[in-house]
Amino acid sequence: MSHTMTDQRPTTDPPVPGSVFTHRRMPRWAPAAIAVIAVALGVAIGLAFDLSSHVQWGLIALALFVLGTYVTTALLEDRRQAKDRVATSLVWACFVLAVVPLYSLVETTFAKGVKDLDGRFLTHSMAGVLATDEGGGVYHAIIGTLEQVGLASLIAVPIGVLTAIYLVEYGRGKLALAVTFFVDVMTGIPSIVSGLFILAFWILVLGFSYSGFAGSLALVILMIPVVVRSTEEMLKLVPNELREASLALGVPKWRTILKVVLPTALGGITTGIMLAVARIAGETAPVLLLVFGNPMINNDPFNGAQSSLPFYIYEQYLLGTDQAYSRAWSAALVLIAFVMILNLVARGIARWKAPKTGR
Amino acid sequence: MGIPVEKTSPAPPAGQGARPVTRLGDRVFSGLSRGSGILLLVIMAAIAAFLAVRAVSAISADHGNFLTTFEWNANATPPVFGIAVLLYGTLVSSVIAMVIAVPIAVGIALFMTHYAPRKLGGVLAWIIDLLAAVPSIVYGLWGALFLVPHLGGLTSWLDTYFGWTVVLDQSNPGTAPRNLFTVGILLAIMILPIITNVSREVIRQVPQAHEEAALALGATRWETIRMAVLPFARSGIISASMLGLGRALGETMAVATVLSSSDVLSAHLLDPGGGTFAANIAAHFGEATELGRDALIASGLVLFAITLVVNGAARLIIARRKEYSGANA
């Protein structure tokens, strides 16, 4: 919407006699000049008072910039313009603040994680590796994550997609309202609570033991609402004319849904599912409570303890040695890469298979 | 990703009036889909029920007051545990996160809708989505090994110049900032994406005519935002913040890695110590006995109830707003 906004500011005041700024407008380079001065002062103050944290330098520079902008504009233009400019610089500051943590996080993870990340790290487990040893790997954790997430998806995707179909194609009345509301509320269930529920239900009451599958059950609870939400949005985008055409040809409703509605929305649904997978792949808390952790390779998700990538990171972090930290960073890099690739591919599919309507 | 803010259901299913012959396939399929809807409700009910059953048995065995006891010694005989410290820590860290994240998130949303050049706005939306995709354990690792050492300067600076506020006073200057304040900052980064995304959707719905009217009256861009955009978007932003709050309340790993937890309930936010529900569960689960696990489940039930209320309220506000904006469109 910004493109429709005019940049012309109301300048009805007469030009100030003797001012070089005939329309009481600051020159275009003024904000940049103030920024440069503010940064220079910030660095100078930081050096002079020997402030250790560079964040403080930045904050001082930012404060000086906002103050400088306000004073200069208030003097050269008027109060209202000054407020406007301050708001603009604050909004830009918010933008910078959003980028800084992500950059720092990715940069740190990459810098610390890449040096141990090699073929050996990806193909070995932690069997027999002590906290202070170099080496060890994430193979067992990758296996665990893939199996747990795969099982969780196998259960959650059909339930989620069917629920979305119910909400869009069938649902009316109180039941549909209740389901919509609780899907929303379910989105907000803390992951540790879903872990506790499976612990109480599956392990304490039904008496099963810790396993990868118990972890996937908790992931199912976290995954269903995400799948329902995104599938629902996609089904709503399918034009009604398609449904009507199919029904008018005498096709039963269930075949209409399976053969017309779902294929039309398939790209979007796939995207939603992949984003949901990316989300649960990074969940630590339920896994922590339910799969128990295991330094050795266990290919069977139904029997015995397993590990998983997020669990592995936490475990290595708790060990607290330099070697373990290094392994944690490398595993974090593997996990981030996995999640980011899923995200990028999902968005690629979304763009490639974008529904014909709604854009 | 999809948070339903807009769209007034464009697809009411066809064929309401004329009832088609119900075929077997139809009945099976609609039964299946209704069944999964019902299953969802059953799961929610089961979560509450199972947690409640275990919680009751734990609380009845508690030799302290469950609500006011500070320490968490569920494995001891007699077991004494309470949620006072956890409740305090959870609320305080979440409030800090909200105070930091909400203004910034609204700023970013405004930046994307009103200030940024189109392309930059697109790139920023992408960056925000990536922020949302980073797993919480990675935030935790980064927070503990990068943020904590780097916040030392800020912490001691706050202690030196704002120590008189008591809240920002450090009892032992120079200790590593594994405190609720750092947790709050980390949580703020983590809940930024959801608040930004929901706020942006709401701000996008502000009728163009309102903004044009304000501009035509000679308002500056900021005055337009303050007088036309923000009032319209206020309730949406409030519910976006509450969704963020729900996230912050239940976050586990980032707190478990950063905070050095203890049984201390302290007003000094910069002192290490305290705890949150989720982190306490993660930390104590390993060595918990049977009763210990039930005690943790009891604390989980409290957390579940809190997030349920917060999220439910947020959704209700959004739902009410949807009708309102529909009438305006």
Automatic annotation (TrEMBL), chain A:
Q: Which named protein is this?
A: Phosphate transport system permease protein PstA
Name its cellular compartments. Cell membrane
Q: Describe its function.
A: Part of the binding-protein-dependent transport system for phosphate; probably responsible for the translocation of the substrate across the membrane.
Q: Which UniProt keywords apply?
A: Cell membrane, Membrane, Phosphate transport, Transmembrane, Transmembrane helix, Transport
Under Pfam families, the record lists: BPD_transp_1 (PF00528)
From which lineage does this chain's organism come? Bacteria, Bacillati, Actinomycetota, Actinomycetes, Kitasatosporales
Q: Please indicate which superkingdom the organism of origin belongs to.
A: Bacteria
Q: Which SUPFAM superfamilies match?
A: MetI-like (SSF161098)
- Which residue range or ranges hold the ABC transmembrane type-1 domain? 142-346
Q: Which family does it belong to?
A: Belongs to the binding-protein-dependent transport system permease family. CysTW subfamily.
The way this protein sits in the membrane is described as: Multi-pass membrane protein
The answer to keyword Protein biosynthesis applying to this record is no
GO terms, molecular function? phosphate transmembrane transporter activity
Q: Which organism is it from?
A: Streptomyces malaysiense
NCBIfam families for this protein: 3a0107s02c (TIGR00974)
GO CC annotation terms, alphabetical: plasma membrane
* Ranges that cross the membrane: 29-49, 55-76, 88-106, 149-168, 175-204, 210-228, 260-281, 328-350
Please cite one Gene Ontology biological process associated with this protein: phosphate ion transmembrane transport
Main localization is membrane
TrEMBL record, chain B:
UniProt keyword list = Cell membrane, Membrane, Phosphate transport, Transmembrane, Transmembrane helix, Transport
Keyword Transmembrane helix attached: yes
Extract one GO BP annotation from the record: phosphate ion transport
Write down any Gene Ontology CC term.
Answer: plasma membrane
- PROSITE patterns tied to this protein: ABC_TM1
Annotated ABC transmembrane type-1 domain residues: 87-314
| Recorded GO MF terms | phosphate transmembrane transporter activity
InterPro entries from the UniProt entry: MetI-like, MetI-like_sf, Phosphate_PstC, Phosphate_Transport_Permease
A Pfam family annotated for this UniProt entry: BPD_transp_1
Compartment annotation: Cell membrane
Please give, as recorded in its UniProt entry, the membrane topology of this protein.
Multi-pass membrane protein
Question: What residue ranges are annotated as transmembrane?
Answer: 37-60, 80-111, 123-148, 180-198, 228-249, 295-318
Q: What is its main location?
A: membrane
Family indicated by similarity: Belongs to the binding-protein-dependent transport system permease family. CysTW subfamily.
Q: What is this protein's function? A: Part of the binding-protein-dependent transport system for phosphate; probably responsible for the translocation of the substrate across the membrane.
What's the protein name?
Answer: Phosphate transport system permease protein
Record organism: Streptomyces malaysiense
